[in-house]
Amino acid sequence: MLNHLPNLKQFLSEYYFMEIIHLSAECYPVAKVGGLGDVVGALPKYQNKLGHVAKVVMPAYNSKFLYENEFETVYDGWVKVASTNYQARILREKTNKLGFDIFLVHIAGLFDREGVYGYSDDTERFIAFQIAALDWIAQWEHRPDVVHVHDHHTGLIPFMLGNCNQYRHLSQIPTVLTIHNAQYQGQFGWDKLHYFPPFDLINTNKLDWDNAINPLASAIKCAWRVTTVSPSYLEEISHVANGLEGLLSQERGKSIGVLNGIDTEVWNPQKDKMIVKGFNARTIESGKKANKEELCRVFNLDSTKPLFTFIGRLVGEKGADLLPDIFYNALAQSDGEINILVLGSGDSHVEDRLNEITHHYAGRYNAYIGYNEALSHQIYAGADFLLMPSRVEPCGLNQMYALRYGTIPIVRRIGGLKDTVIDIGDGGFGICHDQTSVWDVGHAIGRAYELYLDQDKVKEIRRYMMSIDHSWDNSAQQYIDIYQM
Ligand SMILES: Nc1ncnc2c1ncn2[C@@H]1O[C@H](COP(=O)(O)OP(=O)(O)O[C@H]2O[C@H](CO)[C@@H](O)[C@H](O)[C@H]2O)[C@@H](O)[C@H]1O
Questions:
Q1: Where in this chain does the record put each Glycosyl transferase family domain (predicted)?
Q2: Which of 147, 233, 337, 480 could covalently link to 394 via disulfide, CB atoms 3.0 to 4.6 Å apart?
Q3: Nearest to 213 by CA among 189, 233, 241
Q4: 202 and 138 co-located in one domain
């Protein structure tokens, strides 16, 4: 009889459909600041395709999505944070247009603003969001099979579920934390301890890291499982994680690295409505040519020369502070033989320096400072090379979008970049360098230029890159396996 048990377990895991609740600050297309939005906008869709019921709960920002869609109210209540009572309402989008149910938590006075982060009351905002979401789930007649939280904005949920008196009946729901970026932890002072719903003060140590309340550290301690968005990043954060390395190596036993996928419906060069000409692996040469010509026309660049690009948040983690010097050097040394186009926003000093280059190298260089989703698609489609000189890169999605659109990635060997890009010198398709330095990236740009001169090789690499499968199919199943561990 006992011999049959493993088969029974396998049977159950294959045929048992789970209800999964994702809680996140971002979800594309409702609200996206970076890669977190992409992941939470795609993973649930792919989990649903596997037959499970994945849902997303996020704040109701003042976004286009809120005004352009129809919603029904599924919860009406009040959230108390410190001495203030906020009215909370949870809205469900009626048509399942994203491929999963999306629930928006409207909290008057806290989320009826356009931005996602960066307000002085972010601590209050995200605590209120987490309490409202749990108060709602606490009223359900059934329990979800798993609660999956993403980054520090929802990192207090595993603690609250396990320890707050009002959620005691939910304490056996398994919780999973995915760390998209351990640099940001959401710490705040102990003077805000009274923001929490009542719990036994003997458990305050589960909130503490370095004499502060640290939502990411608390989630690492309290979640049943911890995942990182690539296997290499899991290795790296046991050594360097903005102060959490000790805790992460201590909790290594319950941690797993799962490589992000990409939404191949949103990022499909053949059907992409944001680009001027769709293409597939067979029509890639004419497709890229048309997209490059249009991009170069709009940005006053020379489409007969190789086009290098950078897309992303202009912050230290991405190596953005070095970009101006990298570009000045490359433009000076190439003697007018290359083009560079930047799309990004962030550190204002870096933004100013990147804008400044336009005055010295008009016709060879341009920058769009700001956020522009459609332009990002046009650049992946039209560029020849994409630079990612990151100091830290938990996974990185840009390189995977670049591969899908036949753009050769130039990346630092770190985190998820190391897991997804193989250097041409090792029989691969990308250009890799070891350090985030002006010299290393400059050398890599030189190698890319040499490669560009061999157009037969470039064509072969492009076709190969487009055949690489980075869709969510595999990783979505990996998460299901983790929920069932
Ligand atoms: N100015 C702009 N205009 C338009 N689009 C822009 C833009 N700036 C960035 N983007 C887009 O934002 C996304 C960035 O995703 P990344 O994964 O590269 O980085 P991010 O650091 O935000 O995410 C974190 O979470 C993700 C998801 O887990 C990890 O892959 C990553 O390593 C980790 O740092 C891409 O879709 C990119 O095209």
A1: 292-427
A2: 233
A3: 189
A4: yes
